[in-house]
Structure formats: C-alpha cells, structure tokens
What we know:
Layout: H1 17-21, E1 27-32, E2 37-42, H2 46-54, E3 64-67, E4 70-74, E5 80-88, E6 92-101, H3 114-156, H4 164-182, E7 186-191, E8 196-201, H5 207-225, E9 229-231, H6 237-243, E10 249-256, E11 262-270, H7 279-299, H8 309-326, E12 330-337, H9 340-347, H10 349-366, E13 372-377, E14 380-385, H11 390-405, E15 408-411, E16 414-417, E17 420-427, H12 434-450, E18 456-458, H13 464-485, E19 488-497, E20 506-514, E21 520-521, H14 523-532, H15 536-558, E22 564-569, H16 571-574, H17 579-589, E23 597-602, H18 603-608, H19 610-623, E24 626-632, E25 649-652, H20 654-657, H21 664-679, E26 683-686, H22 692-701, E27 705-706, E28 715-716, H23 717-732
Parallel strand pairs: 17-18, 20-22, 22-23, 23-24, 24-25, 25-26, 26-27
Antiparallel strand pairs: 1-2, 1-6, 3-4, 4-5, 5-6, 7-8, 7-11, 9-10, 10-11, 12-14, 12-17, 13-14, 15-16, 19-20, 19-27, 19-28, 20-21
Helix pairs in contact: 4-7, 9-10, 10-11, 12-13, 13-14, 15-17, 15-23
Amino acid sequence: MKKGLLQSLSLTKYERLLPRIFVGSVQLEIRDLKGELAWALGTAPATVQQEDAAREDSPVVAWSEFGHGIQRRHLPGGRVQFRCALRSRQFGQVGWLTVGYDAQFSVPVSTAPEPLRRAFVDATAFLQEELELLSECNQMAVELTERYEELNLVYATKDQVEYLEEGREALTRLVHNCADYLDVALAALICRDSNLVLHSSRGTFDTEALLEILGTTVYTRVESQVSSLILNAPDDPERQRLFAGREENLLVYPILDDHGTAIGLIAVIARKDKHVFSNGDRNLLEVMAKKASRIIHTHHDSLTGLMNRSGFESSLVTAVSSARSKNQRHCLLHIDIDQLHVINDLMGHQEGDALIRRVAKTLRAVLRDSDFLARLGGDEFAVLLFSCPVEQGHTIAEKIRNAIAELTVISANRQLDVSASIGVASIDPETEGIVGVMASAEIACKMAKEAGRDRIQVFAEDNTSLVRRSEEIEWIGRVQQGLRDDEFELYCQAVMPLAETSRAPHFEILVRLRGDDGNVLLPGLFLPAAERYQLMPQIDRWVIRNSLRMLGSNWESIAAADAVFCVNLSGQSLTDHSFLLFVSDELRNAKVPPQNICFEITETAAISNIDEALTFMKEMRGWGCRFALDDFGAGLSSFGYLKVLPVDYLKIDGSFVREVSTDRIARSMVEAMCQIGRTMGLQMIAEFVGDEETVEVLRAMGVDYAQGFYIGKPAPLQDTTNRLRSAAAVESA
C-alpha cells in the first residue's frame, strides 16, 4: 500500500492554493523517500529540476536542520530549498514537501521564521488529509475486491438441491471452496448424528488426527455453546483443552437447524505462519455454515440430524433398483416409538424431543455402517438394511427393540419405560417400487402396535389382516387424489317427519367419490381408510365448504321450504383446533341461515372428545346451528352425557330400528330411548327404516322423523335443490 501512494496522489486542485501559502516560491515538489519525484509545480525549467534531483546526494547541497521539523539547503546559483516531512497515520513518513526560492530570497534568522513554519504546518496538514483519504480509498478498493471474491465464493456454492447425492456433492464442493478461498491446510464439515464427515486437505498434513479432534472435543464445545471458535494465540487456554495443544490456527462455526440447535460444524485449520484468522474469515464461514444448513435440511431431519423422508426415499430407490437388476435382497424396517404422546402430555414436548434424539443415537449404535437410518417424522423411523434377507432383518429388528426397551424417561419424579413397535418388509426382485414397500413396512408396524405394542411384525402377502391394511393404503392415495382434484360429490337423503306433516323437511348430506371409471363409490369403501389415517378433517372441510356454497347459490329460490340440512362431523375434526375457526368463517360467508344447518356427531365421537365437542357445540349454537347425536344407543353409555350435550335431535342407531317391528327387545330399547328424548324435550329420528310396518311402529311410539331407503334413497344434492325449487314455484303460482 505504501509503495506508489504518493504517485497516486492527485494535487491538481492545490496548484493555486500552495503558491499562495508559500508566497514568493518558484518551485514546489513532492518526492518519496527515495527521492523520486511524485509531483512538481513551479517556474524552474525542467533541466533545473533534473539538476537539483541529481545533486540530492552531493555534500555540497546537503540538507540541514532549520528548526520546527523544517530542513534547508543552498543550491548553486543562490537558490535555496526548504522541505518538511509528509506523513500518513497508517504508514508514517511517506515523502517530502519541498519549496524552492530564487537567489533574491533571504532568511534573516537562523531558525525557521514564523510565516514559513505556519506555511508548512498548513500545507502538510491538508496534504496529510489527502493522503489519508487516498489510503482509505485504496484500502476500500482492496476490501471491495476481497468482498467481491467472497461473494463469488458464496454464490458459486450451490445450496438448492433436489436429490441426496446432489446434496452430498454440494457439501463436498462447499468444503473445497472454503479450503481454496481461505488458502488453508484443512477444511472440514462434520455432522455426528448423521455420520457425515467431509474434508479437503493440502500437502502432508496429519488429517486423521485433526478430524478426530474436530469430531470430539471441538464438536462437543461448539454443540454445547452454539458459538464459533477461533484459536490464533499460542497461549490460548482453550488450545490445550480443545485442540490437544496443537500449534495450528483454528476457526470453527456451528451449523444450526431451524431451532438454533447445533447439528454440525464447519472448520478450517491453517499453519500458524500461513494464516491468522480474522473476524472477516469468521463472517465468511458463518455464511458457508448457513448454506450447509440449507443443504443438510433438504434431506436431513433438523431434530436428530438423520436423513429425512426425502433423503431416505432417494436411498430406497437405489435399493429397489439393485434388487431388481442384480437379484439382491434387502430389508426395510418401520419403527414407531410406542405412546410418545404420553411422554409429551405428562412431561412436555421437550422431554419427547429429547427421547427422539436418544432413540436416534441408540439406533445408530445398533446398526451397521452400511445401513441407512432416517426419521420419517413424529415418532417414526425407518431403517434400510442392504444385502439383508428378511430373516436377518427380523434379528436386527429384535436388537433394536431390546435396545430401545432399555431406555427410560425420568422427569419430575416420574419414570416411564420406553418401547417401540417395528414392521419388517422385504425388498426383493419382485418389489415394484418404493411406495409399496414403504406401505408394507408401515402396515406391519401398525399391526404390531394393535397387537399390544413392543413387538415385531413381518409383512406377509398371505396375512389377510395385512392385505386388508394394504388395500386401505391404496384407498388413502385415492382419497388424497380426490381431495386434490375435487373428485368428491355431494348427495343427500330425505328425513321424513312422522308426527306432523307440517314440519319442515330434513335432509342428511352425504359424500361420495367418483371412481376412475366415472362410477360413484360409496363411503363404506373409502371412509374407513380415511378415518384410520386421519384424513377425515380434510373431507369434513370439503363437505362443509361445498355444501354451503351449493345451498347458498340456490337458497333464495328454496328458502320458503325452510329445510334443515344435516352435515356429519368426525371426532377427528372436533379435536382439530383450527376446525372451529374454519366453520365460523364458512358460516359467516355463506348465504344459508345457520338455523337451517344441523351438525351430526356420533355418540362415540362426542363422548370420546367431550371437552372439544362441548366447545364446538356451544360456539355453533351461538350462531344458531342445530345438533343431532347420531348412532344414539349403540354404546349404551351416552344417557348420562345427554345432560351436558346441547343437542336438538337423537338419531336412534339403525341396529335397533331394523328389528323394531319383529324383535321385542329391540322395541323395548327404542321405547326407552324415546322416553328419554321426550323427558329432555328432544326430537327423535329413526335410521335404517326399511318398510311401512316399521314406519307405523315408530309413529305409534312417538318418533318424530324416519330415515332409510323406504323413505328415500340418497340422491345428488343438486337434484334435491331442483325439486325444492320446483315445489316452491308451484306453491307461489
């Protein structure tokens, strides 16, 4: 920086000012410390300036002290020169400001007179400021160049990846880029939980020993303190404790997940005489650590550091492909921690998350280095065992089950045992794809849980229960497609008043699914799977939204009928905290009066979720909606709950209604239910009415409404609104 500083100085703007400061001067020069001319101004001919420069070293024209930091010399011909040092705060003295006078100039005293001293003070002051400005600009240019190189490094390092192999390549390139840009002996990226170690080293270097240190003491420090680490000073007390007393310089930055937890580190190491790490280096490494985090999160779970579902599926594709092309056999394990929700409820989600991390480490300790381990989400893990027949896979699953069973959770004077259910599925040449094999392992795991938990179930094609679950998995895909492509349809079934024909008509809204062939699929085919795999809230939302929109678009022409439309709700929707807000928003925007909407909840759902049911029912009744308790009497446990459930209708379970005209016990049960309903001022609805004789028996008992195929079969909701519109037109004519 010092070299060439004076040559870069622009003094054009001072060509009028300096002669005014040095009155009577005939020559002004700025020379560097070697005597090389950097700038000159004056009336002296160029030849004279050259002669003066040539005599710099001549003793005849030697400089002598003149006082106040000013030097003087006499030149042949009577000319006299004065000079003063030019200084920079950063580099010290960088040159001389020289002023020349002709032979007539005389100095009456032996020391610098006040006018000359003040002239040099003023001139060197603003020249020094000019030097400082130039120095800062030059430094800024250097820093901008470095910053530009850093940006090139950052933007050249890819952090958007789609496949697992692409992510590993991107991380490898990131490590190499750090080593190249910082010009260090070793750069490394380590994520212990995901068993990921990448490095780039140069020359003869004790790489293995350094990686061992980075993966143990240094990693533990970064993981616990979640902060960067710089070791430059030889006497740093942490050097011995963390770095085994090694003399290299070290810079480490943690790789963080979305919650601010350290899941890995990126480190650079340099020989002490080659690179001293700065805050700028630290900032650069922070940017690269964030890029690494984005790459890792694409295919790794943030809580455990294991592969996530996306990364695991990429590995599973490779396994299925090798099984088919090379006639190999592999094994897939689906692992589910039993009753994790109990730990979350009793001890908090922090303890639950801690257990998930402990299970992840336990699994890693049991498995081989060649096995692939992933967290699929929640309490579910998956293990891919390469070159492993299903019998050996069962043995490994048993080791896993035993290892997890040794874990316990202790908190707040409570101790809970831990167990896991494991499903095992084979990957062989007949395996068609990853969806099928993952579904098989998951189905087997669910069967293990239903059989009592803490056990292993191997998927077998001849197991009827497993096959039935496999069919349910296929229906799940069909339901999800129906929701995505809007392939559901709304039907409704009439509910006929028995006691008084003047009562308003009722209709129960039902849902159907269009098949691939265009035929309508009944709910008995797809709803069981939707209930088992927690898709009912999505279906309920679709039914409510589309029912209110269809009815609202026709309400002006059918309002005179004052019909009540009943919509079924699942217990899963009642426990969905956002469902109440959803229904409120839909009612607010609907053109249907809330009093013409009745929500049907089964007694099982209401009793199992009594608090949520009460909250929902009270809120909706505030809007004016009605409620019916469906399948009443099926569990024979709901009588006591009628005192607190704000319902308007009781729908007698069809298992009693079917035989009410032929079975004395069934008739007695229905009569008892009717008595309870009348006592509480509720209206009774009988389901599954199949003939006229049943209608008459129900009417004699005082049942208010009847529903069933004899009353009317389900029909598209649009057909019903068309009939109501036509009836209203006839009445008004």
